[in-house]
Amino acid sequence: MPSLHPELAPVSDAVTNNIRVEVLSRYSPENSRSLEGAWVFEYTVRITNLGSEAVQLLSRHWIITDALERSEEVKGPGVVGQQPLLAPGESFKYSSWCPLKTATGTMQGSYRMAGPNGGQFDVEIAPFALKAPYTIQ
Predict the structure, then answer these.
(1) Mind listing the domains of the chain with CATH numbers?
(2) Three-class DSSP labels, the chain
(3) Tens of pLDDT along the chain (137 residues)?
(4) What is the Cα–Cα distance from 81 to 78, expressed in whole angstroms?
(5) What are phi and psi of 39, to 5 degrees?
């Protein structure tokens, strides 16, 4: 019987409160040590303000799950040491990395944003796959 859920791709795209979050991930063989149980994945995020008012990224919350269903949460201020302010129509792009103890996994999460009146809200980072080549899952 075919799966009712399509396979999760190494890309994600979500829009919450006029903030678009796009992610692309890739396996990083040059930083991985698969024989020692260490796989490293790089990901690039683009955050775009589709709204009519400026917003600022305050913090991040990632949920990283490996193939054995072990989850780790990562929370902290900003991204890559920054808390970018995005004017209407503006984008912010950054790259980072994630280690896993298995050859496959997933990431998802949210960013906490602040609007012009100081009100805060969360925007979704849709789930995306972390997959080393030649793995079946």
Answers:
(1) 11-131 (2.60.40.1470)
(2) CCCCCCCCCCEEEEEECCEEEEEEEEECHHHCEHHHCEEEEEEEEEEEECCCCCEEEEEEEEEEEECCCCEEEEEEECECCECCEECCCCEEEEEEEEEECCCEEEEEEEEEEECCCCCEEEEEEEEEEEECCCCCC
(3) 333 334 678 899 999 999 999 999 999 999 999 899 999 999 999 999 999 999 999 999 999 999 999 999 999 999 999 999 999 999 999 999 999 999 999 999 999 999 988 899 999 999 999 999 875 55
(4) 6
(5) -110, 135
